[in-house]
Design brief:
This protein has 340 residues and is α/β, with parallel strands linked by helices. It has 14 helices and eight strands.
């Protein structure tokens, strides 16, 4: 059985789920053996990941974790992303494949140009979760699950200069996790995700900030239920510096998204202040109808009919002698092993 070394940098819901999905693949008879090393600044997270079976061993430093790794999964808190590229670069083997799970892809590609060599191959990856896990807002490792990527897709964002063989490898690796990979331009990715991920994070942050500055916050804070908790949980799951970097590095797009939201809120405020019941009802009914369609589409998971295009065709095989010497040969051979 061929073996492959995986390094998970940053242990959380998504990265631990990758480890569990690889373990599932092996249990189902996949012909490749994965040895998974984990790193997290918190030793407790590493212990937890090992206990749940997401990793085989852990390292206390990121450069030690990536030494001799064939594939590196980068899921570090975003404020540390650039520093991590700089730290691990000297210890990366030639031909290593880096999957960057950072929330923004364009900045990572620039850091890769600065710190990595032509023998290090990076593809951005953003998993869109299985609809059955859609309403779990908690991003902590306790909610990692081997099925997190099933019946959904992974957005792959290679640079224009990324070699074909690396793109093939990323495509097939996403399939092994149970996902249907699709491609996006890195800048298009950062634009789309500003609306669906960054805008909700910013909204939750500003709602909490607004309420904590009210004179009656000492009373308000006790009258909080799941609706408030889910909306504002971003402040628990993400470091303030990570949110700062996310928001500022994508500020142009996020500003446009905010302008649209503010306009909608202003219109709704006018309807409320003037007690225009029919206008308020129209908004609520329209939103509820479209929400039902969205939920049904997500659970149907018919990505082939998605509005942005047909499913891309997977590559038939991977080039021999790829990525510094047979990483792809070891992992995939000439057949698509994703179904095993």
């Amino acid at each position: 059985m061929s073996s492959l070394s995986i390094a998970l940098l940053g242990l959380n819901r998504v990265s631990a789920s990758i480890g569990l999905a690889l373990k599932r693949y092996m249990k189902k008879g996949g012909k490749y053996q994965f040895t998974i090393t984990g790193y997290d600044y918190s030793a407790d997270m590493a212990k937890q990941a090992k206990k749940m079976g997401a990793i085989d061993k852990s390292e206390r430093k990121p450069d030690k974790a990536v030494a001799n790794a064939d594939i590196v999964i980068l899921s570090i808190s975003y404020e540390d992303a650039e520093a991590t590229f700089r730290t691990i670069a000297p210890d990366l083997r030639d031909g290593v494949m880096i999957f960057d799970l950072s929330p923004l892809k364009a900045p990572s590609l620039e850091w890769a140009k600065t710190y990595l060599t032509d023998e290090h191959h990076i593809v951005g990856a953003t998993p869109i979760v299985n609809p059955h896990h859609l309403f779990v807002a908690d991003q902590s490792i306790e909610h990692a699950n081997e099925s997190l990527f099933d019946d959904s897709t992974t957005l792959l964002t290679p640079s224009a200069s990324c070699i074909k063989e690396a793109v093939d490898l990323a495509f097939n690796f996403a399939q092994i996790l149970g996902s249907k990979p699709r491609f996006l331009d890195p800048h298009e990715h950062d634009t789309m995700l500003a609306y669906t991920e960054q805008l909700p994070r910013l909204l939750g942050t500003t709602v909490f900030y607004h309420l904590m500055n009210q004179d009656n916050w000492n009373d308000l804070q006790w009258f909080t239920n799941p609706g408030f908790g889910v909306l504002t949980r971003v402040l628990f799951d993400y470091h303030p510096d990570a949110l700062r970097d996310e928001f500022t590095q994508n500020s142009a797009v996020l500003t446009r998204a905010l302008d649209g939201l503010i306009d909608s809120l202003q219109q709704f405020r006018t309807s409320l202040s003037e007690k225009k019941t029919q206008e308020i009802e129209a908004v609520l009914v329209s939103a509820a109808d479209e929400y039902e369609k969205w939920i049904n589409n997500r659970y149907r998971a018919d990505w082939d009919s998605a509005a942005y295009g047909a499913e891309p065709k997977p590559m038939n095989s991977l080039a021999r002698g790829l990525l510094g010497g047979t990483i792809a040969d070891k992992l995939f051979g000439e057949e698509d092993d994703s179904k095993k």
